[in-house]
From TrEMBL:
Gene3D superfamilies: Invertase/pectin methylesterase inhibitor family protein. Residues 1-28 form the signal peptide. This is Pectinesterase inhibitor domain-containing protein. It comes from Malus baccata. PANTHER family: PLANT INVERTASE/PECTIN METHYLESTERASE INHIBITOR SUPERFAMILY PROTEIN, PLANT INVERTASE_PECTIN METHYLESTERASE INHIBITOR SUPERFAMILY PROTEIN. Keywords: Signal. NCBIfam families: PME_inhib. Coiled coil: none annotated. CDD domains: PMEI-Pla_a_1_like (cd15795). Transmembrane segments: none annotated. Residues 29-181 form the Pectinesterase inhibitor domain. One of its GO terms (molecular function) is enzyme inhibitor activity.
Length: 186
């Protein structure tokens, strides 16, 4: 008899914990939002759906977003953080690259400039989303163009990036593309 009461008490305690916590419901909403935008990103830009979900789910503010506007802001902030890391890498590389290697130097300089623009563009976009500024989509398109200029410069100079930087650049572009899709829906 004691074990039945203990079992019932345990179940009641679990039900109380789950019913008083909004987390499962909030996670379901966030999961639905992330799944939806990753499906759209796959359809529009050709990204791997699972990689998109996995990349966005790792970021706590993204995972906790409960509506498209909050998700857009969280993703742009994630893009901003990654763009800052990429910019720091290229600025550091620029400082140690021999200017005599013109092709390599110019590619690294292009990337430092491109990611400097991206940082400014993402920072503007965070404020713009909050203020419902309709120019955010244009800024995100310009950011994409700059990142592509960087990729083309690196490719032309046959410069291969370390995996960590390559992953950071990929995540920056993924976030840019997801944010672009969300912004167009707001």
């Amino acid at each position: 008899m004691d074990s039945s009461i203990g079992y019932a008490t345990f179940i009641a305690f679990l039900l109380l914990c789950f019913s008083s916590s909004p987390t499962p419901f909030a996670n379901a909403i966030a999961s639905s939002l992330i799944n939806s935008v990753c499906k759209q990103t796959q359809d529009r830009f050709g990204y791997n759906y699972n990689q998109c979900v996995k990349s966005l789910w790792k970021d706590n503010p993204t995972r906790l977003a409960s509506n498209l506007k909050d998700l857009d802001t969280a993703i742009v902030k994630l893009a901003l953080t990654n763009a800052q890391q990429s910019k720091a890498f290229f600025v550091n590389a620029l400082n140690i690259t021999d200017k005599g290697i013109a092709k390599g130097f110019e590619a690294v300089k292009q990337c430092a400039d491109s990611y400097d623009f991206a940082v400014g563009g993402f920072a503007f976009s965070v404020r713009g989303i909050k203020d419902n500024d309709k120019s955010v989509s244009q800024i995100l398109t310009q950011v994409q163009d700059e990142i592509v200029h960087c990729e083309n410069a690196l490719s032309s100079a046959e410069i291969e990036l370390p995996d960590l930087v390559s992953s950071t650049n990929f995540l920056t572009m993924l976030c840019r593309d997801v944010a672009f899709l969300i912004t167009s829906q707001l």
